[in-house]
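The record is passed on directly below:
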Amino acid sequence: MRFHLTAARRASRLMCLQTPACGRRSFSSDADPSSVSTGYHFELTSEQKQLQDMARKFAREEIIPKAAHYDKTGEFPWDIVKKGFEIGLMNQRVPTEYGGGGLSTLDACIVTEELAYGCTGITSAITSAGLGQTPVIHFGNEEQKRKYLTPMTQEPMHAAYCVTEPTCGSDVNGVQTRAVKKGDHYVLSGQKMWITGGGVARWYFVLARTDPDPMAPASKAFTGFIVDADFPGVIKGRKELNMGQRASDVRGVTFEDVLVPKQNVLMSEGAGFRIAMGAFDATRPPVAASATGLAKRALEEATKYATERKTFGVPIGEHQGVAFMLADMAIGVELARLSYVKAAWQNLYGQRNTYTASIAKAFASEVANKCAADAVQIFGGSGFNSEYPVEKLMRDAKILMIYEGTSQIQRVIIARELLKNVGNR
């Protein structure tokens, strides 16, 4: 199938409640549309099915056959990335006026789940530019969007999101990178760490402290910058050798007195924290979708193995202990999908989704880890061996509970939102 995502721009409003205002929309392929007259509706649109089928086909034909190779070598999968670019798998959420797919968060989630079924590391290599792009998409001015988004739709290139530092990740208020204004430029100095796409990015979103007062509130202390990777003073560190998702390029990036023109400030000085945190409402649902794809792969591999492997004269899936593990995995996969669907739906319709995005990210990432661990257990000794696929799933899953906000930080956010809105739900 040579179906380009940009041909499915009308699919950007994929799912909604059936109301007079928006008509009937859908978000699953199992229900008979004719049987649904009110309330939620779970049938995919034809455009959505095309998106799903294309991503599924790509994962099975392009990603899965090469996933083990890139896991072992740690090379960046440029050949797969370029093929993905050719059919529109990159720049999914870049607006159409800048050459992108113009897809919604919901669309991106549908595609991401299918790609992640093949390999979450390669999926990150294809889609992680979206995190770097999101601040520009939502908060950039027209000149910034045309300068930095449009070129990304003309050739395969990356952008990266630079907030985490060696001494702070969850504690964003502890960011030490500083930017001092001098004339028409800012002098940017500091070090970022664990930057996904850091070695292949053409430009970065960088959060830096611009208020020297250590007591300044986060809401005013930081500024968001667009920093070209080829600006003098930008130094890319070595690629990190990580436990999992090894096809993804992760490394530190150092900024040594980098001159950044004032035109590269997003919104205004002091708005950086709002920009950096606001991006997560759009990007955490796709992380949850990625986790769901990995969990689904673990479930299917374990189910297949449980029907083939025999002990005591019967397939191990007929033993209640294994059967219940498979059932729990299935429960997790289905509920993880529903969690990201709701968060993405709210984002699509302009509803504040901080609460549901954090729930989806925390829940789905933990489901992925449990499903991967249970798959290894069901495989037994074979599951511990790299000749079988599930040990890689277990290694790849762990980072899902860490990047874009740890599971603990998600619980902080969930509790804060819950307590803040007592009586309003």
